Known about the structure:
It comes from Hyaloscypha variabilis (strain UAMH 11265 / GT02V1 / F) (Meliniomyces variabilis). This protein is of the alpha/beta class.
Amino acid sequence: MRGHRPQFLVSSCRALLQETKAQSLVRKYGTVSPVTVEPTPQSTVFDRALEANAPRNNWTKDEIKEIYDTPLMKLAFASGTVHRKFHNPASIQMCTLMNIKTGGCSEDCSYCAQSSKYQTGLKASKMVTVDSVLSAARIAKDNGSTRFCMGAAWRDMRGRKTNLKNIKEMVNGVREMGMEVCVTLGMIDLEQAKELKEAGLTAYNHNVDTSREHYPSVITTRTYDERLATIKNVRDAGLNVCTGGILGLGEKPSDHVGLIYTVATLPAHPESFPVNTLVPIKGTPLGDRIGNKETSPFDATLRTIATARMVMPRTIIRLAAGRTTLSEEQQVLCFMAGANAVFTGEKMLTTACNGWDEDRVIFDKWGLRPMESFEVEALRELVSSSAPLETQAERPLATVA
């Protein structure tokens, strides 16, 4: 009868539906095998560092070691990728360092010519005048340096009220030239750090030198925790922290990991991380022990820079003491792997320094340029606003007062 389904057809359809409820109605063609979905591999520490969009400071030593031990070509390429995500790779900060008080330091740092405990032929002197500092800063600025650093050889600032007054005048005068200003004056307390901040200081340098484990074999007159206390005072005063280390102190690769671990797990990453290579000085314990031998191979320098860039993506990484031993190509490879600052000028405290003319030739050849004063702060504003870094060189940089 029209309009009525045969009872056997209804029953057959119901049976078919019951049979196929738990089965997939996938049509098979020939002998094609079903597609097997492979499980997604878990990302490694290295992968997560490469893909990071912001710094983190809860690193473990094992995580940093995993990155440090990555095959060097892979590590350097990855660190360069991270560098381009957070920085303009063509910009190199040019810093000039002036010794404003030479020698006579009571510390026993086994690498330093300025310790009063060693006979290095260096004559101790009083602090230089404010005018001489400002004159040197003008020369540095005229030659392309945009950050002027001043170092004094003493243990701390206790009882140095007159010296602090003069240093604040120096800081203020250099800042009025439109340059960034950094000082390294040994240990300081919070109040002294605040005074320097009010005078216009940009950053304070206080290196931890090496890992906590290796440190006692290098210095005995100041503890590791005292160094960290000074860094805390600097940060609490609102100053940028500049802290790094020295390669070639008789340390092991694990100490490079330990050095990076120390600074990468501070409450905030340092604004600047100097990577020094020991310059052996006759008369110092390390200088006499090492003599003319190579203090640290280049691959250790490159590996340390690349690891630091992966772990501290926004930090300025500075090629510091010992750069004169690097060839032009080695320096450029460091820049490609994440280094973006150098010390340049006539001298670096008591050791030789690459000159402005030499750096100018390298910069011109490789398409690099001196970083503007406070450029990093302006770039961070662009990064935080999600502006493409490719347009950074074409956009005016904000001036930071």
